[in-house]
């Protein structure tokens, strides 16, 4: 089985704050979105706000500030970790295995996710990190919209990382997962294209999108987004929504 291809296929840009290139959040985001060159194939289709060092109030403020820019570009804003900030201002949330364990405690994940679905607006996206085949198989029974799978290669952007899974395992996971797969971890342009050819719906990146100026970020994001969309569409499966 191959998962359906979502409309948001392509570049999944992670805006990791504080920005490693020293840019303010809005400038880094403007670069990612390629403001002057927006077209469905030239910009990331998803931007994730990942602000691990911000407190809840600051994360909420950032999500409210950035959401209109992301939406004006025709993309979706996902907030990492923070369900409350995501529900208040964004189009979805991304949760890791540890986030889920903390949130659910002794409760079944299915039950907690059903509650989240009921509370969330229609179309709200829920993403879940997976790092092993067992986690992918567990996720298959969960009401999530996509899984992150990685790290594909070792990453410099996350200290506490799981062992690298590699491209062959990604290809298998893309075949067995009913959910669209977003590949993550250690990806540059070449690696992202390999992920697309392995069947990933998206390639998520932090480091490959960092630049010291807005123009530099824009050049990186535009090139990557365009190449990825072409590679994914070349597989020939029409997007489902
Ligand atoms: C698309 C995507 N995939 C995986 C992750 C990692 O989430 P998590 O394991 O919760 O780690 P943190 O990013 O929260 O440190 C992600 N953020 N996005
Ligand atoms: C945030 C994150 N999660 C990962 C996972 O394996 O779940 S890897 C990762 C870091 C991705 O950054 P870069 O593109 O710079 O390697
Ligand atoms: Mg997390």
Automatic annotation (TrEMBL):
Cofactor: how bound: Binds 1 Mg(2+) ion per subunit.
Pfam families hit by this protein: TMP-TENI
Annotated Thiamine phosphate synthase/TenI domain residues: 43-209
EC number: 2.5.1.3
Reactions this protein catalyses: 4-methyl-5-(2-phosphooxyethyl)-thiazole + 4-amino-2-methyl-5-(diphosphooxymethyl)pyrimidine + H(+) = thiamine phosphate + diphosphate; 2-(2-carboxy-4-methylthiazol-5-yl)ethyl phosphate + 4-amino-2-methyl-5-(diphosphooxymethyl)pyrimidine + 2 H(+) = thiamine phosphate + CO2 + diphosphate; 2-[(2R,5Z)-2-carboxy-4-methylthiazol-5(2H)-ylidene]ethyl phosphate + 4-amino-2-methyl-5-(diphosphooxymethyl)pyrimidine + 2 H(+) = thiamine phosphate + CO2 + diphosphate
UniProt key word Transferase: yes
Cofactor: Mg(2+)
EC category: transferase
Physiological role: Condenses 4-methyl-5-(beta-hydroxyethyl)thiazole monophosphate (THZ-P) and 2-methyl-4-amino-5-hydroxymethyl pyrimidine pyrophosphate (HMP-PP) to form thiamine monophosphate (TMP).
Family: Belongs to the thiamine-phosphate synthase family.
The protein's name in its UniProt record: Thiamine-phosphate synthase
Source species of the chain: Nannocystis punicea
